[in-house]
Amino acid sequence: xxxxxxxxxxxxxxASVAVTFKYCMVAFYVTSVHRDDARARIDDTCRRWSxxxxxxxxxxxxxxxxxxxxxxxxxxxxxxxxxSHYDIPLSFMAVPGSMRMLAKKELSHIPIFGQAMxxxxxxxxxxxxxxxxxxxxxxxxxxxxxxxxxxVSPEGTRSKDGRLLPFKKGCFHLAIDTQAVIIPMVxxxxxxxxxxxxxxxxxGVHVDVVFGKPIDxxxxxxDQRQQLSDKVETAMRQLMQxxxxxx
Length: 247
What we know:
Elements: E1 2-3, H1 6-33, H2 38-56, E2 60-65, E3 76-80, H3 87-94, E4 99-104, H4 113-119, E5 123-125, H5 130-145, E6 149-152, H6 170-177, E7 181-188, E8 202-203, E9 206-211, E10 215-216, H7 225-240
Parallel strand pairs: 2-9, 3-6, 3-7, 4-5, 4-6
Antiparallel strand pairs: 1-8, 7-9, 7-10
Pfam families: Acyltransferase (PF01553)
GO molecular function: 1-acylglycerol-3-phosphate O-acyltransferase activity
InterPro entries: AGP_acyltrans (IPR004552), Plipid/glycerol_acylTrfase (IPR002123)
């Protein structure tokens, strides 16, 4: 592992923008021309974009635990820690199925990128408007019912030191409302790649993507959101420990 020098940093930034622009254009093309199988094509587009970004920083990773298979026609929510911009592309590489991110609304305002995300069925949530957020979660429910696997960070924002932040309750409301299966997932050492506030990434970092045992929300009521949140948080904290086995 070594920190990118200035020239490498410039190259990574320029190449990342170029790669992202390219795949935004692909997303627009796919959703305009190949409407019958757009979702599957977008799945492939997201993974190609992710692989290209991860190659730029020479990120190395291993999969541990029970990889979800989605064979029972249930709705699924992947709940993952969030400590780096690279959580998202790595999650696309690790998580099977048609995964989409529950993203903060501010991302939708980024020219081209925001429109491409919307075309690709990403769900935006307004974290500052409670009534709007309820409508956004209703939209997320509809996407899940159509087969989308939802990726969320229950922390709601990136951690500065890699430790789990207090969990928000909205995603647990959604999980109970849809009777979803929650897949706890953590990315160990992702904080080493590009911590919040840093500009130059570390190259050649090895991280572990760890899946925990599924947590079924059937039987939980909305009044039990805190109990469900505590259960998921406990599972994720255990997965963060290298000596713990996710199997």
